[in-house]
Amino acid sequence: MWPLAAMAIALMSLPGCRADGSTGPAASSSAAVPEAQASRSHCGAGWSRAAAGLVQVRVRNTDVNAEEVFLADGSGRLYGEIDPLAPGATAVLRTTLSAGDYHLVCSVNDGTPVHGPKVSVTGAAKGVRGVQPVTSADLAPKVIAYQKWVEHRLTTLQGEAKSLSTALRSGHRDTAQAAWKQANRTWNTMGGAYGAFGDLGDAIAGNAFPFAQGVHDPHWTGLLRIEYGLWHGESPASLARLGGVLETDLTALGKQLKTTQFQPLDVVRRTHEITEDTLQQTLTGHEDYGAHSELADATAQLDGTAELLKVLRPLLAPRYPELSKVNSWITKSRNDIRAQKSWTVTPRGGTAAAGHRRVDADIAQLAELLTPIPTILEPRVFR
Questions:
Q1: Does residue 141 share a domain with residue 116?
Q2: What is the edge-to-edge ordering of all strands in the sheet holding 18-20?
Q3: 15, 33, 147, 192: most buried by Cβ count inside 10 Å?
Q4: Best CA proximity match to 28, nearest among 58, 62, 7, 70
Q5: Do both 312 and 219 map to the same domain?
Q6: How far apart are CA 114 and CA 112, in angstroms?
């Protein structure tokens, strides 16, 4: 269940907006909370009025299918959401509303939505700002533009992988390490967080943890395997085969991208996932196999996030007033990373250096600001 009302909190910094089945301090007794039906035949039945301010309605799914239930006004702005609501289940939708006319909207499996009867809200209390929903049609051109950008970056990476293979075959460690750093930076701009590229992504830049023999497993390949070899005394020439495997996998990824389309929901999730990955994987050294490239990787990941936000900005700017703060924290994060003269991964149980704590705090704050964006831009069938 994704509470759209929580999105309104992020937009307006107002408390008290939830959509759940809990009973706590924010909830009154069951008898005091009106109940409305959620179904294709009786959407919104049973609820007709409310007082401005904190509004609660107990929504009961009387259909045989799971429902998506929205609370909307006449202009189509959304103020709350329960998704999904299972057959026979009940959940309390909580939000904060100003005076006006609202109604519930019920949808099954993203089918044609059913609009319920008008609910009159009266009183002087102020409510949260509603959010205009985004549709798949709204997102389609943005997703296509982002995929083209990723494909362009992949073309660049394919060329850099060839240079890396050449350097490995030459046997010059310094040249190979420099070529690896450039290829790895490009990869980190591409938004490959949380397995976005599937098995090929794991082959290209997966770590050694899934393999039975860890870093010594012969089945481990990709950028991180080459990193391990270059920074742990293996001869560059002995790694040349891995360079060829990397080129082959990147070619396969290029073919995959040309025959598949990014899914809109996956793309909007990346706005937050990339930075979360920076915080949990990159800055912790979880994927450091000797190059100690955490800061360069984090900067590249910030660049990838910034590019995705630029593509989505026309949809996001009118819906998320905190977007300017997001951009400011990206800039601050870049500057604080650039200011670091050295970087050491903090050992388990150890105390991070001041600069490390500053960068960690920057990325954590950025991740927090990015958290509402996938919910704001999640495509919905509403009209």
A1: no
A2: 18-20, 90-97, 53-61, 35-38
A3: 192
A4: 58
A5: yes
A6: 7
* Angle made by CA atoms 377, 298, 268, in degrees to the nearest 5: 10
Q: Are residues 32 and 178 in the same domain?
A: no
Statement: residue 17 has pLDDT above 50: no
Average of per-residue pLDDT across 340-345: 83
Q: Which residues of 309-324 are buried (b: 16+ CB within 10 A; e: fewer)?
A: bebbeebbeebbebbe
Return the closest-CA partner of residue 103 out of 137, 71, 136, 144.
71
- Paired strand residues for 121: 50, 100
- As a whole number of angstroms, the distance between CA 78 and CA 17 comes to 12
Taking the C-alpha atoms of residue 380 and residue 383, their distance in angstroms, rounded to an integer, is: 9
| Percent composition of the chain: helix, strand, coil (DSSP 3-state, to 5) | 50, 15, 35
The whole domain housing 197 covers 136-377
Q: Same structural domain for residues 117 and 164?
A: no
Check if the beta carbon of residue 45 is closer than 8 Å to that of residue 23. Answer: no
CA-based nearest residue to 294, from 383, 363, 348, 246 = 363
Instruction: Give yes or no for residue 273 having a pLDDT over 90.
Output: yes
Question: 374 φ, ψ to 5°?
Answer: -60, -35
d(CA 231, CA 221): 15
Pairing status of strand 67-73 against strand 78-85: antiparallel
Model pLDDT for residues 238-267, shown as the tens digit of each residue:
999 999 999 999 999 999 999 999 999 999
